[in-house]
Amino acid sequence: MITRTKMPSFITHPSSSSLSISLIFIASFILFIISSHGIMSTLVKSDDSITTDQQCKYSEPIFQTQFYNHTMKWGTYRPQVIFGMKTRSPQPILTGLMWHRADTVDGISKLRHDSNMDFNNVRYGWNRHDGQYFAMQSIRDFENLIQLDTKLLKHVEEKTFIPVDVDNKENSNTKEQQGEYHSNEKGGDWTVRIMGKDLKQLKNKPIMSVCFYISLENEPDVSLRISGVQGSKKQGLVSNNPIIIRGKNQDIGEFSIHVTANESNPVDDYNNFYFYGVKKNPSDVWKIHQDVKQMLSQQMISSINSIQEKFQEQQMKGQNVGASPWDTTPFPIATLPNTIDDDSNVLVIQKIVRSPFDLNVVFLSHEQHPDIFSNYQIKEYALHHLEHFDENIKKLKGCFETKFEETFHLKDKNFNNDEKEMAMYALSNLVGGIGYYYGNSYHQYGNGEIRTIPPYSLFTACPCRSFFPRGFLWDEGFHSLLIQRWNKQISKDIITNWFRVMDPSTGWIPREQILGEEARTRVPREFQVQHDTHANPPVLFLGVLELLQQHLGPIRDGSSSSSLNDEKSQSMVELDLHGTQQPSFLHESNAFSNNNSISERESMISFLKQVYPNMKKNYEWYLSTQAGSIPNTFRWRGRTPGHTLSSGLDDYPRGNTQPSTDERHLDLYSWIYMMTDTMNRIHEMVFKKKDQVLVQRLETLRENIMKYHFNKDIQWFSDYAGKPIGNETRPEFSPHIGYISLFPFLLDVVDFEKNPTLFDHVLNTIIRERLWTPFGLSSLSRTDPMFGTRENYWRGPIWININYLTLRALNKCRTRSEKCHEVYTLLRRNIGNTLHNEWKKSRTIYEQYNALNGNGQGAHPFTGWSSLITLIMGEIY
What we know:
The chain is an alpha+beta fold. Helix content is 34%, strand content 17%. Mean pLDDT is 86; it is low at 1-62, 158-182 and 556-596.
């Protein structure tokens, strides 16, 4: 369980009145809204017909408490850019940062904005990010010779930044001390500080262009304006005065932005702020970095051509102008045009600077400050936030580190400071990679035409900011295992979002969420369509089970210990878990949002009511769509000769080049067993009784694995590839030993206490002899003829998610087996050393690690499931 007492959870205790509303009706209300407005219930060929009323259905639902929604309204929910913020809304406010070298010919071509894998030239990552209140990132741009540090602080309450210890509430006297604050769900204020310093000490400091922008997406009738500016201001805005931007958003309301700069070494003739405001198509505002790059490039080319033409004319006249035009003429610096459209929905602010410098941006919500009328008041509020900024960042950083140690206990396990830094980086970049996505998507139903699904939203972490900045179904299950240990509220929020995007009529969840045009720019066209028969490993079920077991306690020997074991609690869940009742106050939208705080028990009940019916529907979808040709066998759909993308293991060999309907896939069989076991455990935890249908299915699956998947040639379990056809000489069972071989052990399908021979075989032969390397377990045996061949994605490299599952399985048995304890200890040590050795070289975490030398490879920074190293170090399974 997470220790919350010394970390700024900002979650207040409930007052007696705030819990007066029946939680039964609250959760039923939420569930009804979700089930009544399924996002995929209406399929259209294009999204042109979607109306404003329809779009409202896809807005974020109230999830837990009003205060939680308030603190999570704003965030770094744009993982696809190096630094940017966004509101959780279909009509969001976006902010972003871009910079480039301003004093070189090719500087603009190296403009930074998007997250990418060019770590030889620019390296970035969150040093500290708690997912909710503050964030600190370091960016080292080796090519542009600058380091930028970005710091974000949310001022979620007007008067209090750091909350009191909620456990000492009884000793507090005032409402503020007791945590009984008034809050709305507009997100409040925030401050961003961007600090620049030189990477190298140079005699001539490089001149940089730094741009910060704000845009209003998907809103046609809104605008941004700079106070005191109409149309244009040729010389820009003097930098010794703040820039004040005013705007309005449908979701946030009215707001102001206060921008200031501090410089110790200003650039002559470029002391001012420069700006550019433009009216763009509301759905295209995210492309502003492309516009700025093109605009500045054209201006630079024009200036250079003009200077060179003048130089040539002077030479022809015999004037002594030197050997180069730059001997007598300063190099031109491209600046924004200092113009703003009357109805601009994008506004860019530029500062030309030398290091060191600070750029401060303070966002003020007028909902939080209803008395704001004048620029003077805006300045006063902004200066107050800036005055306390460093102090509060320092406090939150200390709180983060305290909570981190209380949660993962790495100091107690004798890890050194750099190893702990790697673990904090892993966690910070996982929660810092959470994004909010909204847009249409392409789905294919059966073999029919590809359809454009109307826009919907998803709140999710992503595997990799630079290469996979979007949601992936099986990745998110692994993400949830770490996020819930850090912040259960965020984890429940994300899991609920995933089950909410399920097709309510079938139970299908698209495995890859590519929502909107911006997301599609990162995905090759041939992978953009999601097919309604293609599954993905259902790791989210593990995430739900772990959340419940943390709260209720694990089930052992048919019994359970639970804080929901009283008659009242049982009836509350049992009453309407399937969402069949409709409360009388159905249309009273404030019924749940006025609850500023709810207990952990009530939050868990509400969470169950939202996800359990969809889990059941999704489970049934797997059983029906992934069934094999024989009852109680299973086969991944969407397989091709070289790939089984739906399995998540892509190019892992299946024993048969040509897909066959007779195939039986061992990993899918094991996942189905896990899903069945999870549904049974949840049912038993909540209802205090077994589901006999699920119990019987579990028994059948345990019995049939020997019948359908045991390979006598290797005395272990394999995929069944089907009978050879014609002149084929291949065996019926797949001969390959690799990660798929581990799944009956990883997901506890076989009762190894009753089969000690099999237990010894998986430890000694499969793990120690066939898959073992000094760096972790390889995805395919090194003796396999297909090891390391072709694209070599799952044909040898070491993946942290499967190694984590292996350690999890070993951890369960190591108290009763000395050999198991030995294998566990060595494997955990090898994995930790592999990641830390690479971390010392590159200061980042990779998608996979080479089985021959342990080097990181593939996408990076990959802090999706590779961030499970934090749980491995903390021995939390």
